[in-house]
Amino acid sequence: MASGKTGGLKRYHDLNGWLFIAPSVLLIGVFLVYPIFRSLYLSFFSGKGMMMKFAGFGNVVRLWNDPVFIQALTNTVTFFVVQVPIMILLALMLAAVLNNDKLKFIGFFRTAIFLPCVASLVAYSVLFKSMFSVDGVVNQALMAVGLIGAPIGWLTEPFWAKVLVILAITWRWTGYNMIFYLAALQNIDKSIYEAAKIDGVPAWARFFYITIPMLKPVILFTTIISTIGTIQLFDEVYNLTEGKGGPANSTITLSLYIYNLTFRFMPSFGYAATISYVIVIMVALFSFLQFYAARDRS
Amino acid sequence: MNASRILGTALQYAFLGLAAFLSIFPFFWMVISASNTSIDIIGGKTSFGDAFSTNVTNFFTQVDVPLVFWNSTKVAVLATVLTIVVSSLAGYGFEMFKSKARERVYSLVLLTLMIPFGALMIPLFMMMAKTGLINTHIAIMLPTIASAFIIFYFRQSTKAFPTELRDAAKVDGLKEWQIFFYIYMPVMRSTYAAAFVIVFMTNWNNYLWPLIVLQSNETKTITLVVSSLASAYYPDYGVVMIGTILATLPTLFVFFVMQRQFVQGMLGSVK
Q1: pLDDT by residue (tens digit) across B85-99?
Q2: Cβ separation of B98 and A17 shorter than 8 Å?
Q3: Which of A143, A251, B4, B128 has the fewest CB neighbours in a 10 Å radius?
Q4: Within the 44-83 window of chain A, which residues sit less than 8 Å (CB to CB) from chain B?
Q5: Which residues pair with A45 in a beta bridge?
Q6: Do residue A33 and residue A178 come from a single domain?
Q7: Same domain, A141 and A251
Q8: Burial bucket for residue B100 (CB in 10 Å: 0-12, 13-18, 19+)
Q9: Complex ipTM, two decimals?
Q10: How many helices (H) and strands (E) does chain A have?
């Protein structure tokens, strides 16, 4: 009798557990798990539209002979290799300064620097496009302070178009990363800094030898999520370049290329799915790095 | 106070001042430009002009504003409510009813965090095409409802839910679903508020998936409208600015009203 009752309780506990998680698990199965395997399957097919035929690893071979893919891959890697370290360092410096409660108007500065996170990706891309026109406000300001002699073709020269994308992402996401560092810094015992100050350690050394080592786990975490975000870059380049990733494919990213292959022209579902798996592999590598680091810590 | 300390403080203020200026400037630019003509805007004019009413009028003639706003609001609010209800059920379920099998399912759920959207869009598009859901708002919402981030967030938050409350409710004869809806939800309202802010912002600003699925003007959301106005061969930036203001206002409003929940939700959902 007693064992029967605990058995019933256990079943009751179990049934409730499954019922509570069922809607989410079902949705994840249909809209995440099934499609990710479906694109793997599609990557073995070639052809346009619904006329697809089995191609084995043909799409993988096609990747290496496709200059646009190589360009998209190079651009994507360039964006995260250049942009993420700049942004992380900037966010760290801002957080270190903002952690100083003795400064006045600290609340205003925090809110102001955080504000870009509120902007929609489309809206701020469009704003940047108008600010960085040839005769636009940015070129005028740079010329007024004497940094440049002639207007820069931000949207027409391949090199500067890349710089513009990097500037734009940095504007949008630095404050976001800063919030993580600020939250972590507030958990650090202030007496460590006081002790270092008394010992005559200069501010820059306190930053490099105390702040950065103490924040190492958060820095690693934000670096990886920023990298994963940048690997999937789409909204910004699409809206800065009218969906072309130009000039001359200089800002095309993997996601934009997949979009163009699928939705701009006659769709090449199979080949586009193969490219999407390049993103899957890159993201998986960085995610495992994240899991590994997190496990190391605990 | 010695000279180097004063210099240090001055440098800190200069650094913060510059960063704050650069952070705010595009918002200021958006407001200024809404009152200027397109030629003035790409010419870099930084003072208020007198084209504001023309821009507003042109925007309202080119765009069915009430409809577009209704589309965006409907999609964002519905998707957000569904996401937080479904995800909090799961977060609560995983934490309150622990079992070996469910822990394994939970690990798989967390694994889906690393699935990039780029690898989903083709199969999802084909799925929606097959079921005739292309160009509907249901197609926009369905794939966004299941979110491993938010499930994780709710499971972490549930750890702080006092179990005595649940035990007491059980003694009073409440069923599990009643405990969830009548006790857990009200007690956890600040967790819900933070989740709402984050998920709402994501949905309101969602772009790539709506861009793929929504093809007629009757279904388009504000982000799509702004994007298509700005990608014209000769965009009328004055009109575009009115659009960016309308697209940004709701999120700015949510941010200023619920700043604390915003930060809490952001740190919590990814921690």
Answers
A1: 999 999 999 999 999
A2: yes
A3: B4
A4: none
A5: A54
A6: no
A7: yes
A8: exposed
A9: 0.90
A10: 15, 2
Q: Residue range A111-136: average pLDDT?
A: 93
Does the pLDDT at position A4 exceed 60?
no
Torsion angle defined by CA atoms of residues A95, A116, A245 and A53, in that order, rounded to the nearest 10 degrees: 90
| Residue among A36, A130, A234 whose CB faces B41 most closely | A130
* Distance from C-alpha of B47 to C-alpha of B74, rounded to nearest angstrom: 36
Q: Is A94 on the interface with B (CB under 8 A)?
A: yes
Q: d(Cα B93, Cα B97) in Å, to the nearest integer?
A: 6
Any domain includes B28: no
Give yes or no: residues A188 and A260 share one domain. Answer: yes
Q: Is position A91 within any domain?
A: yes
Identify the domain containing residue A12 by its residue range.
2-42
- Whether residue A268 sits in one domain with residue A203: yes
Residues A76 and A38 both lie in one domain: no
Look up the domain containing B83 and give its range.
Answer: 63-270
Domain presence at residue A203: yes
What does pTM read for this prediction? 0.91
Kindly give, in sequence order, each residue whose CB lies less than 8 Å from that of residue B99, ignoring residues fewer than 6 positions away.
A13, A14, A17
Chain segment A50-104, per-residue pLDDT in tens? 778 888 889 999 999 999 999 999 999 999 999 999 999 999 999 989 988 788 8
Q: Are residues A280 and A159 in the same domain?
A: yes
pLDDT value of residue A298: 52
Q: Using CB atoms and an 8 Å cut-off, which of residues 129-188 of chain A contact chain B?
A: 129-131, 133-140, 171, 175-176, 179-180, 183
